[in-house]
Design goal:
globular, mainly alpha
Length: 134
């Protein structure tokens, strides 16, 4: 393992759960962008790989859901839908091209919602700490 890979691995292990979630969304959205470009350039192997990796990330997001939380059921349905749509895109290539942007938009919206929730939790923690000191 080279130094860069070791640094990258260490930085991932030191991330909070909200930072890791953000990274997963960022990677999935980035892969969809690459898939769009690959499709434009007719690089179908890269296109398929990007969609496969995006599907893998979405499946991982399903695996880490805490099903004791009511919102997890809704997220599960959204993620299942995204996986189905990704499969349709992969099978249809040109016909479903517009769907890539739509899936990317859905992932971006979810990412933003989780970022807002993480900010709110952090603000509440800071507020409770400052009240505890005062």
């Amino acid at each position: 393992m080279n130094i860069y890979q070791k640094y990258k691995e260490d930085s991932i292990y030191s991330m909070s759960s909200s930072e890791l979630l953000d990274l997963l969304y960022e990677e999935a959205i980035g892969r969809l962008r690459k898939a769009e470009l690959a499709l434009e350039d007719k690089e179908y192997a890269l296109f398929d790989d990007c969609l496969r990796r995006t599907s893998k990330i979405v499946r991982y997001l399903i695996d880490i859901l805490d099903m004791r939380q009511p919102i997890s059921y809704d997220l599960r349905r959204i993620y299942d839908y995204l996986i189905l749509d990704l499969s349709k895109i992969k099978a249809g290539r040109e016909r479903e091209r517009k769907e890539i942007a739509r899936i990317s938009h859905i992932l971006s919206e979810l990412r933003e919602a989780f970022q807002q929730a993480a900010r709110k939790v952090n603000e509440e923690r800071m507020l409770s700490r400052s009240e505890g000191r005062g």
